[in-house]
Amino acid sequence: MFKRVLIAEDQQSANISVRKMVEDMGITGAKYVYHCDDALLQLKNALLEDDPFELLITDLLFEPDDRPQKLPGGEALITASKQLQPGLKILVFSAEQRGAVIASLFNTSKINGYVRKARRDAEELQGAISSIYKNKLHHPSNIEHPILKNIHEFSPYDVAVIRLIAEGKSQKEISAYLDAHHIRPSSLSSLEKRLNLIRESYDFTNNGQLIAFCKDLGVI
Amino acid sequence: MFKRVLIAEDQQSANISVRKMVEDMGITGAKYVYHCDDALLQLKNALLEDDPFELLITDLLFEPDDRPQKLPGGEALITASKQLQPGLKILVFSAEQRGAVIASLFNTSKINGYVRKARRDAEELQGAISSIYKNKLHHPSNIEHPILKNIHEFSPYDVAVIRLIAEGKSQKEISAYLDAHHIRPSSLSSLEKRLNLIRESYDFTNNGQLIAFCKDLGVI
DNA sequence: TTTTGTTTTACGGTTTCCCGTAAGGATTGT
DNA sequence: ACAATCCTTACGGGAAACCGTAAAACAAAA
Predict the structure, then answer these.
(1) pTM of the predicted structure, to 2 decimals
(2) Do A196 and A140 share a structural domain?
(3) Which residues of chain A make contact with B18, given a CB cutoff of 8 A?
C-alpha cells in the first residue's frame, strides 16, 4: 500500500475525514494541507529529501482566505504537480458532478481517480485508493458519462461560439469576432449551419435550451 | 453539555466528521442517520422512550438514493421535527451560502445555528454547539451575499417562464402553456414585456444570456 | 494542371423574437 | 358612479435567427 500520501483539502471537516480514511487503511505517512500552494511546497520538499509522495488526494474548489495563493484551485495544483513529479498518482475528491468537467480531468489532466462527495464517499475513497495503488483508474460510480454517450462532441470552436452566445453576443457579432480572431469558419452562414447541426443532434429547438444544457454539463 | 444529539447527514465523510467533532466534545449519546425519514423516526422513538434528543444537527440537501423518502430534504425535516418536538434545538450544517436562504432558516424555520461547510467548519461546529447549549444563536461567520444584490427578484412566474425557455419552448408555446395552466398573464405580448423587463434590468441582450445567468445562480 | 470532393460563403425566404403604441379590463380612491 | 391608475392584451413594423440552395474557395488526388 502507499506509504506517502498528501491530502489537499480546504474544508476542515472533509480534511479530517480523508485523513481518517487514509489512516484506517494503515497508511501512516500521510500529510495534510489546507492550501494549494502548501501542497506544491510539500511535494517539492519531499522530492528534495528524496522521499517523494506517491499519491495526492485533492479537492477542486479552494475558497480564498487571508492567505493569497498562486495556485487558484485543484486543477492548477494538479497541473503543477504533474509537471513537478510526473509519476505522482492523483485522486480528486470533490463535489463536482458535471460530466464534462470530470471527463476532462481524466482526459486532459490525467488524474488516476475521482470520488464525488456524496452518500458513500468515504467507502468509495478507500476503494479508489486501493484501485489506484494497483495502477487502475477509479471512475466515479454514480456519474453518467453524458459526453461519451452523446452523438455530438463539443469542439473548442463550438465551446467558443456557445460561450459568446451566453455572453449575449448576436450571431452577427460572433461572426465578426471570429473573423477578427482568425478563427475559421467565421461567416454568419457557417455559424448558423454549425449551430443548426448541434441543435439537430440534440433535438434542441432554440439556443436557450443549448445554453442550459451546456451549463448543466459544465461545457461552459 | 448536551447528552443526546442526533446527526442527519447523507454524505458519509461529512457524517463521520460531525460525529468525531461531537465525540471530541465529550458527548457520548450521539446517534447518526443518513436519511431524513430515519432522523424523524429516531426523534419519535426517543420521545416515546421519554429520552428525547436535545439537539439535531442536519444537512439541507439530501441526495435521493434507492430508499424513497417522505421528507425531501433538511428543511422539511426541520419543519417536521419542530412540529413533533418544539423544544428541540436545531443546528444546520450545509454548503448553502445564499444569504436569503440562511436568513429564512433563522426567521421562518427558527433554527438555532448555522455552520457553513467551509475552511474552518469543524472548529466552528464545536463553537456553535457550545453556543446553542447556552441558548444562544449561532450565525454563520461569513455572511456572504452572493451576486444577488440585484434590482430584480425572480418571481415564481419568471422562473416558470425561464424554465420553459430552457426546455426549448418557443414564446408562442409558452403563452399557450400559461393559458392552459391558468397562469396569468398568459398573452404573448405580456410574456414579451416581462422578458424585456428582466433583460433590461440586467443589461442582457438575448435570452441565452439570461439562461446562462439563471443557471449560474441556481434559479433554474 | 485538371478533376473531384469538401468546406466555406453568399443570398433569399420564412419564422421567431423584439419593441413600441394603443386599446380594452380591472382595481382603487374619492 | 366616476376618474385615475395599473395591468393585460392586440397589433404592426423591424431586427435577429432559422433554413434552404447555389456559388465560390479550397484541398487532395490523378
Answers:
(1) 0.76
(2) no
(3) 13
